[in-house]
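Protein details
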Amino acid sequence: MGARACPRPMGRKRGPEAERRRPWLVRDMSASQARGAASDPGHGGCRRAWVELLAGRVKRQKLGPEGEQKVRESALRLLRGHLNLGDLVLEVEGPPGKQLCLNRLIDYDGPGAHIDLSSSLIGSALRDQAAQLGVPAAVLCSQVVASGLVRVCEADAVPPPKVLLTPDQRKKLSSLFEVAQNLLAQSMFSRLSFCQELWKVQNSLLLEAVWRLHVQNIVSLQELLESHADSQAVVAWLSRDLRLLCEQTEAPCQHADVARAMLADFVQMLVSRGFQKNADVRGTVDPERMSQVAVAVLERMLASALEALAAGIQEGSAAHKAVSCWFGVFSGHMYGSIISTESPKRFFCHTLTQILTHKPVLKVSDAVQMQREWSFARTPPLLSGLYRRLFVVLSPEELVGHLHEALETQEVNWQHVLSCVSTLVICLPDAQQLVDGWVSRLLTHAFESCDLDSMVLAFLVARQAALEGPAAFPSYAAWFQATFGSARGFHGSSKKALVFLFKFLSDLVPFEAPRYLQVHILHPPLVPSKYRSLLTDYVALARTRLADLKVSVENMGLYEDLSSAGDVTEPRCQAAQDVEKAIMVFEHTGKIPAAVLEASIFRRSYYLSHFLPALLTPRVVSTRRRERGAGSAESGVPAGVSPKSCLPSQLPRIPDSRAALIESLRRADKIPPSLYSTYRQACSTVGEKKPEDAASQREVEPSCKEEPLGLLTTALRELRASVTDPTQRDALLAQMAVISEQLRSALGLGEDDSDFEGAPVQLSVRSPKLQPWEQRVVDLLLTSFCQNLMAASSVAPPDRQGPWAAHFVRTLCRRRLLPALLSRLCQLLHHQGPSLSASHVVGLAALAVHLGESRSALPEVHVGPPTPARGLPVPELFDILLPCRTQESSALCLKFCTAAISYSLCKFSSQSRDMSYSCLSPGLIKKFQFMVFRWFSEARDPPSWEDPASSPWRPLCLPSVDWQRAALCLWKQRTLRELLKQEGLHLTYRDWLQLELEIQPEVDSLSDTERQDFHQWAIHQHFLPAPSATGGCDGDLEVACATLVDVLMDFCQSSRSYGHSENSDLVLGGCTGNRDIFSRLQEMAAGLEQGPARLGHAAPRGHFLFGVFCRRLQALARGWDVASRLQRQQELLMCKRILLGLPPSVLVGSPRLEQLAAPDCDDFFHLVNSELRNFSHDGALTHDITAHFFRGLLNACLRSRDPSLAADLTLTACQTQCPLLLTSALLWWPHLEPELHRRWRRCSQSPLPAELRRLQEARHFAGSVLSPLAAPPTPGPAWLCAAALHFMIRQAGKESIRRELGQLDGQGEELLVFLFFFSLMGLLSSHLTPQAAGSLKPLDVCAEVLGCLQRKRISWLPLFQLTETDAGLGRTLLRLAPDHQVRLLPVAFYSLLSYFDEDALLQEDAFLHVAVNMYLKLVGLFVAGETGAVWTLAHSGDLQAQGDPVSLITNARLFLLQSIPRCPKRSFSDVAELLGASADCDPEVRAALLSRQQAMLDPDLYQEPRLF
């Protein structure tokens, strides 16, 4: 055994006398060892242990078994009497592998026997020593082991304070603990005595040594702590060492695992002893005392951590590491070994209470003023992280209840309470409902019992929750208005409640932020009129306080955010933002914004002092048009920058939105003339400044926004670490709150820029605009989102990435940020799509999915042309931004749809199917199907299912994305097939047609042949045989054709179709992309014509096209206003174009061969009479549709058994059913006749049918009338010859037709009457369409025909009494004139007033009735505004005599008043009807009629009296 000093008795020093009393054998052994070490050259002078010396002697003396036993017994007797126990226990030194402990020598008899020999040796020695000393062996053993433990702890040279052992110390303790365990096994160890010995030198103890005693089951931590008499000393010692342990746990060292294990064991022991409801009292002297010690240690640790946070510890410091480590013990996995789950829960509740009540030094008034600084983003991350760990164990209801209990029963730290509320609102998914319910209960209790504490708490909680943004809680303005702005509010129950509310609000006034006062003033509580004085008193008080704060309600911005609790913006900065918003609203509506008009009246101070100066910022008068972009005129004054600091921009040659708004305000007298002239003069003056002055001014202008942008960039960079590291996902919400805070600073947003207030987002797809600074911020956010998504996808699939993306997108959905975000997405996808990289496409697609996830919280988007101006949900906006017209746009659409659908399926794979497709627009899903069918021929075959385990997201995460492979991988997914079974998501035939019509063939990815093959497959193999339930046609080719026509007309009427080519043929609706689709319609129509006959061989009646046309026309509004007429005219134009593109047989059905029947033309006749007639000109249709009808007629007749008879029957039916077709043939006969002859002679050698020859003869008759020769007799119906003559007169261009009319003397009266009717229609037509007028003015023609009629005493008044019920004449003529011209007959009647033969007219019985009726209708037309079109479109000379409608009505009225007294008695037979009609139109005419009627009834009253 090596020579070393004996261990000192604990607490005493060994003196010289004690040294002399050492056993002589030990002194001799030490001397012998010293000499042996000095004489051994092999060890370089090092001392050798005594066991090595003995081992050497054994090797030299070869003894037998009996000799070895005798030596062993002798050594044992020797050691028992002279052994130094301390040195024996600590005999652990020596070279590894060569050291032989004493017990190995004493009891050595073979391998493995030395442990038993050690126990026998030490136990026997200590037992003998205790017997000699007269003390219990257990006490002596405990003292020996305690002395050895202290010596080991003191052996390290590192100065205190420290808590961890060195490796050498751990090695020594391991041997010491082995001895102690053996002594415990022999019942020779007293734990109590051991603990008491340790507490005597507690300052020398290392915490790790104490922990290892616990781990090795020598003395538990609980036993050690219970053995100390002074609880306060135990608490102080353990708290100090635990703080040191926390510091060393977070320090970079190789023993961090040991430190963490130590901390976990200590915390578990303290929690189990301090918070166990039914403590296990076995072995516990005083369980209540132990519980108090445990609780006191935990409380002291938390209090020191909270104090360190309050002192503002620096990140990375030792104190920061200690606090972070201690807060980490609140993780749930720390307490897995505790059997009862109630102990951690009670511990967490106790901890939360301690946090809420830690040093309650702030008053409620301080909380009202400072709570803005305690939002989630401004709470120390360590504290918010602690809150989140506490929330894991407690349910939301328990958490709110515990908060309420602490607030009711104790004084609280308001900073901790409100920061806890913010964390609760941010981190709990149903926090809004919880907080809202809590606040409602507080308010109910407050108003029921007039409890001021509940009232204060309710307002503080509501305001604190409102600070956290839209995803968490409504803004304070919205909450206050919803709570107190209606009769159902808490304050509406009684006057007492009202007084209580206003007393509370008045008490808050000295401490309120200006924003809250403005909310209370502009959104006041609803108060009954009899208690109005309460409100006015409060408003006066609040206004006084605002005046003291130098904040004016009148100077608030037009679009200022009242929901913000932040500082009030300077009026100049707010005015610049108001100007931007007003210009944007004006740009989209074309009207002065209502907010501007209201401010000009009710807030004139702000309007004149701030808004107008910001709007009228001088701009340089430029002669060249300014380029759009950054710093354009539309951008106005940047937010937050004074108008005076902005450089003047240029006035564009074409007024921009700002200039147009200024001009509109000037015309509305909303800009004082002096201010406007100053603005114009300033623009001219500023233009004379030197360019270098502006440049220098621009250089020195500070950029105050760079710093917030840098902070935002840093926050976004830190987010990526949390996204990619699964262990840091708990910090995601905290980091998102930081980003939200920095975003507010970067954009100058309010604390809660969340209220959309139902206002839709205005977006121009063709020219999206956003400010340069907004673009920088949005680009930074979008770039960060894309990079984070790709980084997170490289670690885990979307369904295991956590909620970071949803929270990120929710942060973007702010009232002022969302329009900029959508505008930037429009620029990127709609205008710059081909330049986007794969990561950009994937990121933006995921962004679209999460926008769809938040669709319920987002406003609608109003997009401008080329799309319909209607509100769209945000997800449907992407349908518009991703067209499929060209190869490039189709490729982008395929990529985007593939990425969006793949991400959605993977992200929500564990949720319901509804969640997957509710986040996507059905349009995107349908476009994906469309593009896959179009691009991949293999997709047209029945699908082969992919491995269900393969993820469609995986191909998109590769460095180089193969989009075709990714699309096909997604297409083969069974989950996608299940998704497509949902209603509204499957690509239907109609959907396919709409998308295919957008394709522009000249820039299509498919060649003409490939495109035709694809059309054939899609129509005939895919959609035609498919059932209608899945969007097919049930095998009905007629249904397929009808759907195609319907979609084609919808597309051509939509504004989308006019965005492709300015020079497109109108037959295709202004769109170059639908030519091939129209060809498919022609092919299918031909297939229907050549298809098999219907069952029973019945002749088909009508055509499906007319059913489509009729249904669409009936859906349009009928009216005489210009908009309705133009819409119907456009629809009819498309109907006509489609008819012209199809075979003429569509117009005329084929007659049956078995019977002599006319072709079926009823549907076409109905279309002409009901629709085309109203858009005919001068009694005729256009040439194209007329010729198409006659081509179809001849083709149909030539297929019948008697072609001439069939043609005659059809044309004869035309005379009564559709006379307009015959008059149209007469007008276009010179062009029509050669084609008819050619077609007829091709199949028949007989002359033209009789009815066609009749048209030819009518044309010849008209020509002979205008020739010098005598006119032949009328060859057919008089109206037909009159029409031909009317057309010939119009085409002849003669200055007078008096001589020609003279040749009609023997032709019958009807011919002249009909000719007069056609002349009247020509007159009205010339007024409505001036280009229809010839050389001879239509008014002169009418006058000459009228004169001829009057000379021959032919009555023409019946022409102005035509009705549909008239047999023959009336019905035929009304079917020859458009309805609007028939309505304008009163204009024609009184236009001829100067040509009337009054004497002759007065003798006609019908004159008075016709004249009064025409006058009343003329007045009605004037009142309805229909006469305006006549005077607007007519030539200036046509109505020169009448001047204007007023002059015409005045002359007509004068004519009536002069004529009524002259009319004979028989003219008043139906005067009662006239009196009833004229009651509301003209009282004077009514009086004249009534007076004349009375004179007829009693003529004596009106005779001169006979006086003589």
Remarks:
- The beta strands are 620-621, 650-651, 761-763, 861-863, 871-872.
